[in-house]
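Posting this for the archive.
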Amino acid sequence: MLTLSIDGVDALRTRLDAYPAALASELAAKAQELAGALADKVKYEKLAGEALQSRSGALAASIAAEVSGDGEDVAATVGSFGDVKYAAIQEYGGKTGAHEILPSKASVLAFVADGAMHFARRVEHPGSLIPERSYLRSSLDEMRAEIVAALAAAASESWEQT
């Protein structure tokens, strides 16, 4: 009869039992860091002239990162949070419908067209075809390799520290 004895089984079992919690904690911290970096790339590169020119700053101000987790799963979201109605059409492109433009603060609209000043009580806008100007997806694509490498390194570091 063969008898086998392995030293350190209890220590290994303890380490393996602790690993999921340590891994989730490490990945959540890294996800928070990476999501913040992605949001900064969108705000300070893509929306500062690389993909779109800033007019009011409302779109850039609406960009935020959210990280959530339940102990096992970690999810990071970077996007436009708030009431910026043109955020999606700038990201994906699309067509606006024909609509009437009415003055909101005066009795008439004033605008320059063909080098001359014009006034009108209302204007019939025919609609617009807005091209795709990706600022979110393109930023994620550019950071994809960095994000994957950083998460893999975090998992490895978590194992070493457990």
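The chain has two domains: 9-83+133-161, 94-130. The chain has four helices and eight strands.
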